[in-house]
Amino acid sequence: SQTGRTQGGPGSGKGTQCERIVKDYGLTHLSSGDLLRSEVESGSARGKRLKDIMERGELVSLDIVLELIRDAMTNNASSRGFLIDGFPRELEQGVRFEKEVAPCQFVLFFDVSEAVMQQRLLKRGETSGRVDDNEATIKKRFHTFQELTKPVIEHYRQQSKVVQIDASGSVDAVFGQVKSALESRGL
Ligand code: AP5
Ligand code: MG
């Protein structure tokens, strides 16, 4: 089955676009961030440690993320394909996942300025209840993205798997570009 990825900084619109994509293309959306937040909500001791890390805008350990995604894929084994959102966040995560679980066919990279992303996240923070939608954590999430995740995008760019999308426009305008990208890849 197909496995694609979405990449982009915090607030670039990955989750929003994934919701639109799964409606039209029948892929299963798996977000490592969402899986981690449900682990936190479960109230487990591990969840408490995860929450602290997410509150600092850092990455949680590779093994936990790999396990969560692997389990979610097993639970949806009949899916026609997976769209894995905000993943991999660091090079080793990607390398291990491809070796142990599934190769990556394409990466949609939602590119937009930090100013716009910050504005979106602060607005969402008024109601989201997310522990990381505040100015201090947003700054750290930007830093983590630049230092650890940007190199992952470069890695896939060298394999010609990245489709860069201008994510500064409206949700519809961004989705229009997503559709052309997916259709050009035969989806
Ligand atoms: P994660 O949950 O992945 O968060 P993120 O990448 O920081 O980004 P968001 O989910 O906040 O933004 P998004 O790009 O999905 O945008 P959205 O569509 O929501 O990760 C959170 C934390 O978990 C990480 O910091 C890390 O600690 C940990 N983690 C996660 N994955 C991990 C991994 N693989 N390994 C290790 N640790 C991991 O949109 C944002 C807002 O903007 C919304 O309000 C939306 O309505 C609005 N919006 C969207 N598009 C538009 C548009 N075009 N115009 C105007 N508004 C828009
Ligand atoms: Mg998201």
Automatic annotation (TrEMBL):
GO terms for cellular component: cytoplasm. The keyword Transmembrane does not apply. Coiled coil: none annotated. Its EC number is 2.7.4.3. Its main location: cytoplasm. It comes from the Eukaryota. It is found in: Cytoplasm. One of its GO terms (molecular function) is ATP binding. Keywords: ATP-binding, Cytoplasm, Kinase, Nucleotide-binding, Transferase. Monomer. Catalyzes the reversible transfer of the terminal phosphate group between ATP and AMP. Plays an important role in cellular energy homeostasis and in adenine nucleotide metabolism. Belongs to the adenylate kinase family. This is adenylate kinase. It comes from Macrostomum lignano.
